[in-house]
Amino acid sequence: MLSRQQIIRSSLFTLHFSLYLCGHKTNQSDRTMAKVYVFLADGFEDVEALIPVDVLRRGGVEVVTVSTTEFTQVESAHGVSIEADIQFDQSDYSDADLLMLPGGMPGASNLFAHEGVREALKAQFAAGKKIAAICASPAVVLAPLGILDGKRATCYPGFEQALTKATYTGDLVTVDGNITTGEGPAAAFPYAYELLTQLVDKQTSDQIAEGMRFKHLMQR
User: Fold this and answer.
1) Is the dihedral of CA 85, 211, 34, 42 positive or negative?
2) Residues facing 2 on adjacent strands
3) What's the half-sphere exposure (Cβ side, CA atoms, 13 Å) at 121?
4) 45 and 107 in contact (C-beta within 8 Å)?
5) What letter does residue 32 receive in the DSSP assignment?
6) How many Cα atoms sit within 13 Å of 14 on the Cβ side?
7) In whole angstroms, what is the distance from residue 199 CA to residue 35 CA?
8) How far apart are CA 219 and CA 209, in angstroms?
9) What does each C-alpha distance from 188 to 162, 192, 220 come to in angstroms?
10) Nearest-5° Cα angle at 44, 93 to 146
11) Euclidean distance between CA atoms 116 and 120, whole angstroms
């Protein structure tokens, strides 16, 4: 049977942990929630899609996953099926603060093949609003649309040959104006925290990173 002192210590630990993961929401209660759409096509890279979704939702961002297939269910590059929130034709994306593209193959190619995705990205870019892409998608989707022209960008090694009108950085994450690009699966966490910083603030992003023990990981 637990002693009174052990119960108190357990309660304090629970409170401390909750403050790391949830406390920041109180500070955001008077803010307008940012809205993000994540386009998913069959063959998307699992962690590049779901880690940013997880991190942004922890930070109080409204994240809507979008199936670009004829069904709400989408299959990842590694055979994991997920149920998207909506199908592509259920929104016009004019209310998006950020449009996000995971990488993976053939996921990136399938995104580029979708006319609606291409048009949504071009409209977002023309409006001067935020776009993020990781892994193969900067090269396979954004570069052919001219979105990376004159920009600094990163992508998965080997795809940089497609960045003919961009400056390839080779960094884990590169931000140039309203365009954020990530290198690959291992970049999914810093990429997500960067986007959370942009959409909410750095304090919130740092709190989430600490609560998820990412900062501890990077100290090792």
Assistant:
1) negative
2) none
3) 26
4) yes
5) P
6) 6
7) 9
8) 13
9) 21, 6, 18
10) 55
11) 6
Vertex 212 angle, CA 208 and 213, to 5°: 115
Mean pLDDT per 10-residue segment, the chain (220 residues): 48 44 46 90 98 96 97 97 97 97 98 98 98 98 98 98 97 98 97 97 94 82
**Encoding tokens for residue 185?**
């699966």
CA distance 170 to 199: 24
CA distances from 136 to 29, 48, 104, 126, 189 (A): 36, 11, 6, 22, 17
Q: Give burial (CB, 10 Å; 0-12/13-18/19+) of 116.
A: middle
Could you tell me the pTM of the whole model? 0.86
**106: cis peptide before it, omega within 30°?**
yes
Do you know the residue count of the chain? 220
Type of residue at 27: N
Q: Which helix (H) or strand (E) holds 193?
A: helix 188-199
Backbone angles phi, psi at 28, to 5 degrees: -100, 0
